[in-house]
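Recall from the previous lesson that a structure prediction takes nothing but the amino acid sequence as input. Here we apply that procedure to Arginine deiminase-related protein from Mesorhizobium dulcispinae. The sequence below is the only information supplied.
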Amino acid sequence: MVRPHRFTVNIETAADNRFQISHEDAGDLSPLVYAEITRAAALLREQGIVVHLFESEDRDAPDSVFPNNWFSTHAGGYVAIYPMKALSRRRERRSDIIDMLKSRYRVQEVIDYSGLEPDGLFLEGTGSMVLDHIDRVAYAARSERTDPIALEKFCAQFSFEPMVFSAKDSSGFDIYHTNVLMCVATDFAMIGLDMVTDLEIRCEIVHRLGRTGRRVIALTNTQIEKFAGNSIELLGADGRILALSTTALLALTTDQIDIIGESARLLPLAIPTVERAGGSVRCTIAGVHLTPRG
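The prediction returns the following tokens.
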């Protein structure tokens, strides 16, 4: 996780992120975001989750609180670095974070896709892709930030099958990142099915998720707008946890909460100021799937 000291809503990304809220007349939001990330990290640690918390004082990297977009880690000792659409977001890539991973975990190879940026080929990490590690499927909603060619390169390297689809909000705009639309956990998956425009592909997604034995929880457009899809399953000291925002939890129905509760304990994190930037809990967490050094 990254705790920003100079948080602002990124004007550069506002054109295609309809989840962002205007920062005009909002004043300095940095102290609020600093406190929200501090508390979120503490709550995760209380559950036995190892949290590596980095600081960001770069005023020209307003989205540094969302590290999952620029790198991801994978079993077998692999780290991927991604091509980012916005110039400001490219500043988020940090060698000290990669160095920490190499020192604390067994890293065999770092694969850097950022060289695709001059060709306009973008793939913003586990924002652009929602990875099913059981069925080895990379779900990806088409957008200016998620290029199918870049996705194919990643999938070929990491042995995932790409499933690309179109997804639009109620106003007809492309969903900017797949991870605001869906969350794939061990025993369940949450997805805004109504936003998937192609009915045949919608059915295929449900089939693929269901054939692993998962229960598919259909989220409404309103629930997606409240970041219910932007959740992440983590492994705590006492079992699986679904980390989500308090905004997202309030949007879920009792039946949906019950289904999730059969598999994972819900852990709500209060990050309403962070959510003004158009992302929620899933976006703030870059998962570590590496083996610790002895």
